[in-house]
Amino acid sequence: MTFPIMQIKLKRLKMTLKNPFTTSFGTMQEKEFFITEAIDDSGNRGFGESVAFPAPWYTEETVETNNHIMKDFLIKLLQENDIRHPEDVRKIFQPVKRNSMAKAALEGAIWDLYAKRKNITLSEALGGTTAQIDAGISIGIQPSMNDLLQKISHHVNQGYKRIKMKIKPGWDYEMLREVRSHFPDTPIMADANSAYTLEDIDQLKKLDELDLMMIEQPLAHDDIVDHAKLQASIRTPICLDESIHSAEDAQKAIELESCRIINVKIGRVGGITEAKLIHGLCRENNIDIWCGGMLETGVGRAHNIALSTLPQFTLPGDTAGSPLYWKKDIVKPEVTVNNGIITVPDKPGIGYEIDDAALEAFTVNEEVFDM
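Above: the chain's sequence. Below: its structure in token form.
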């Protein structure tokens, strides 16, 4: 039996973050992105979210390339092929190379629609095994050490299970040592966003004394070879992020011993189906994984929550509460964290209702495609 998708909508949104978010690449205050909507013959609505940024600093994808690829290629492939299950979308999209975030945005809407048609939660549709997940928090580069310590203290007091901080050359060891002295028992990780090379190995070795959970993507965004050399030289576990775009990438990284942990981002790997394949591979090889965030609204956060209920997601993810990022989210109720825990919603699909008034208020353009 085929999957009767009648329409796909691409809604382009523009929303302002509560606070600027700074990494080694720059600062973001306003976010532009797409909400995708898949509608079936019974009026059920499934939702996905694109996570590409306006500029290609994280991967090669951008808001504009997502728009082009979805409109001119991916939606046409969906129109031309029968879908029996959301997992079919991965194969349907294979003729289009890379463009993972564009693919994930559409596949996510189809997964949500599938779960709603089955009257089950997205977590159940994926094979999730837990009703609660641990939440961590990601903190951008702050103007001063005092600002950073205050932010960490606030989030620790809220019960977040792990603190992630952005680092770059000149804002790494000394900063982390100061943080560790104030928070000796807090799980801490450092995210480098590819800011280092092997020439910095002595500086990175110094991080071993700080008992970090991990250092995330210290070297080049597309590397697994130098990361293997670095991991062999330091005790701190390396977590790969930007280097992992597929289960094949994960397999190679595991075989080379390039990392001990993998960050799975649905957008970066091309969708939930590919994320599930990576999960299975890591489970077989005893590699810890966690779900990374991309400053999503409640739609993207809901997908992350559902994925994080799979058993090998053993470490707290970046799925913090909506109120930390947005004055008003586009889902209701908003995603909330209580003492570092998110309760997985028990309603069908992503489990959160779309706030249509808010969705329309933030929409700057909409296109509708009949299937």
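The chain has two domains: 5-119+354-370, 124-350.
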